[in-house]
Amino acid sequence: MAQEIFIAPSVLSADFARLGAECDDVLEAGADMIHLDIMDNHYVPNLTVGPMVCRALRDYGIRAPIDVHLMVDPVDELIVQFAEAGASFISIHPEATRHLDRSLQLIRDLGCKAGLVLNPGTSVGVARQVLSRLDLLLVMSVNPGFGGQTFISYTLDKLREARQLIDESGLPIRLEVDGGVKVHNISDVARAGADTFVVGSAIFGAVSYAEVLRQLRVAVHGG
Length: 223
Ligand SMILES: O=C(CO)[C@H](O)[C@H](O)COP(=O)(O)O
Ligand SMILES: [Fe+2]
Fold this sequence. Notes:
Keywords: Carbohydrate metabolism, Isomerase, Metal-binding. This protein has helices at 19-28, 51-60, 76-84, 100-109, 125-128, 155-169, 186-191, 201-204, 209-222, and strands at residues 6-9, 34-39, 66-71, 89-92, 113-118, 136-140, 174-178, 196-199.
């Protein structure tokens, strides 16, 4: 089932001192949702922000979907806190929960859309059993923890495999890609089957967010 194309700027590369305004700017420039990377210095070797920042963005007036990427272990308590803080999508890594099915159900029970994240070294097969619990499958194209890394090219094969799995299931699951996505490679990523594109440094490092978003969309549709 083809999904509408979504571009989700990762604010990991934004100016955190003016986060609300940065979100306004990328949304006005044509972004579809805000990708919020939550890192705990335990599951990944980096530390970002907690649910109060998600709440602050909602209170500031951000109405677009907020796509929360939880790189935390353990994860269940933070699922609850981010749902209460206004998250729309909550995506979790299978290594960060002892009971993947239960954690995914928890996300939906709290009224959010549930995502599963596959690291470059994690097999697509991990998603197979829990597919009916998913609204989104996120294929990492870098190892999680930092923005600005180089796209790992073998993840294109994983995207194709994930696309096939989703298509065969007939379920309306988004296929998201995250890490190192730029204007020069997004058409390959789109051809491999992604419909939801996290883009961090390529957007926030640009002079004009609108221009880079335009170029990304042209490349997706051209691909
Ligand atoms: O989850 C992430 C890192 O773990 C980020 O979302 C990702 O790295 C996006 O940034 P960039 O487009 O600069 O690679
Ligand atoms: Fe992310």
